């Protein structure tokens, strides 16, 4: 199995610090904000060498934190990589620029399955970056039997051994799914019931912590038994701890698409589109998929990846691992894409999250 994560990336990017490219001299710059441990940094160097454009790369911990930065004027980004539901919100609030796809010819390589989606139905603002599922990661040596349900995230049998994800959409979504409700419900009673389930588990001491990228260290080192997190990150953790397992629970989950967008007030739109075109090319998509363990929406790259892996590492790619990275249709059929919720529902989410008192 591959082992490529760089300690420097984990410590620098996960902390949200600025990664500034070393090439340049042309004065051309692109400012990119994405998630921690979500790019092969060799691609940054390659892009800089090929174009002379300096890449300033920064990270955010969650969609909600990114949105807060953008609304508060504390961010100077050109390209951002939010998730589907947040993209829809940014479009609705007129915060994204329409892309000139003539400058992004590699967009033709994106599978049609990832075009015309609900967050950008007319394909004006986005180029998909990666996709995957949210699920449960658990340490097989620390649980009594294989986990199949979201109810494990609320089980007092695992008190102080569960890590809940530290963003409101996923955390409340998990509670909604465990109750048999849609993650896109606007029913206030259902959302409040989900909140109460989270609040009770918190009061009962089920949660050791509410985490985002802190989950890597805790699960890799066996400091917690169960966590809710994303499939690609599970595969990264598995490289350090082979006792870990991953499941998309029987109640279903979130199938997400993250996409590259350009902000409407971007200072370097031409450079931003060059970056996007480079990243969604087949060569870059293969390298990135190999590094971050998330499925690419580039149809050529996704098809070629098993052969790429075998050629790179001298052994075949385990089919089970490949189907965690690129979930098959029967798994996706049990999942929902987050939709942008109405303003009053978003206010309710925010109020309940503040009341819960756990973070972002």
Features:
360 residues; alpha/beta; D-Maltodextrin-Binding Protein, domain 2; 2 domains; eleven-stranded mixed β-sheet; 39% helix
Topology at a glance:
Elements: H1 7-12, E1 19-20, E2 29-35, H2 41-51, E3 54-60, H3 63-71, E4 79-80, H4 84-92, E5 127-139, E6 162-165, H5 168-178, H6 188-203, E7 207-211, H7 215-220, E8 226-230, H8 231-240, E9 244-247, E10 253-262, H9 269-279, H10 282-292, H11 299-313, H12 319-325, H13 329-332, E11 335-336, H14 343-356
Parallel strand pairs: 2-3, 2-4, 6-7, 6-8, 10-11
Antiparallel strand pairs: 1-3, 4-10, 5-8, 5-9, 5-10
Main pleated-sheet profile: 11 strands, mixed
Low-confidence region ranges: 1-25
By CATH, the superfamily of the largest domain comes out as Periplasmic binding protein-like II
CATH classification, class level of the largest domain:
Alpha Beta
Cα gyration radius (Å): 20 Å
Total discrete domains: 2
How many helices does DSSP assign? 14
Helix content: 25-40%
How many β-strand stretches?
11
Query: What is the succession of H and E elements?
Result: HEEHEHEHEEHHEHEHEEHHHHHEH
- Strand percentage lies at 15-25%
CATH architecture of the largest domain: 3-Layer(aba) Sandwich
Q: Return the CATH topology of the largest domain.
A: D-Maltodextrin-Binding Protein, domain 2
Distance between the termini: 35 Å
């Amino acid at each position: 199995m591959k082992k490529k994560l760089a300690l420097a990336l984990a410590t620098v990017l996960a902390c949200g610090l600025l990664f500034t490219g070393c090439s340049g001299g042309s004065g051309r710059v692109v400012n990119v904000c994405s998630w921690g441990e979500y790019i092969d940094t060799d691609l940054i160097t390659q892009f800089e060498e090929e174009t002379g454009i300096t890449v300033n790369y920064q990270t955010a911990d969650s969609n909600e934190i990114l949105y807060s930065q953008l609304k508060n004027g504390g961010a100077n980004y050109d390209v951002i990589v939010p998730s589907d539901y947040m993209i829809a919100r940014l479009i609705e609030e007129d915060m994204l620029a329409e892309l000139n796809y003539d400058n992004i010819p590699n967009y033709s390589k994106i599978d049609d399955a990832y075009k015309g989606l609900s967050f950008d139905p007319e394909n004006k603002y986005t180029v998909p970056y990666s996709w995957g599922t949210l699920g449960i990661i658990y340490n097989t040596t620390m649980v009594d039997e294989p986990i199949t349900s979201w109810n494990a995230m609320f089980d007092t049998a695992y008190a102080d051994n569960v890590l809940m994800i530290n963003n409101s959409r996923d955390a409340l979504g998990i509670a909604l799914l465990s109750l048999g409700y849609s993650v896109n419900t606007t029913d206030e009673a259902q959302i409040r019931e989900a909140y109460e389930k989270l609040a009770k588990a918190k009061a009962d001491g089920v949660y050791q912590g509410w985490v985002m990228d802190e989950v890597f260290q805790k699960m890799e080192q066996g400091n917690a038994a169960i966590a809710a997190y994303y499939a690609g990150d599970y595969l990264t953790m598995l490289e350090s701890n082979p006792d870990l397992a991953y499941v998309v629970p029987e109640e279903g989950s979130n199938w997400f698409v993250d996409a590259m967008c350009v902000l409407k007030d971007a200072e370097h739109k031409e450079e931003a589109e060059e970056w996007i075109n480079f990243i969604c090319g087949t060569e870059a998509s293969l390298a990135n998929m190999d590094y971050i363990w998330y499925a690419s929406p580039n149809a050529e790259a996704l098809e070629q990846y098993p052969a790429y892996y075998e050629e790179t590492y001298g052994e075949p790619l385990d089919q089970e691992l490949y189907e965690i990275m690129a979930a098959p249709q029967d798994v996706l059929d049990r999942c929902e894409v987050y939709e942008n919720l109405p303003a009053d529902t978003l206010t309710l989410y925010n109020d309940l999250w503040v009341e819960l008192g756990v973070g972002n």
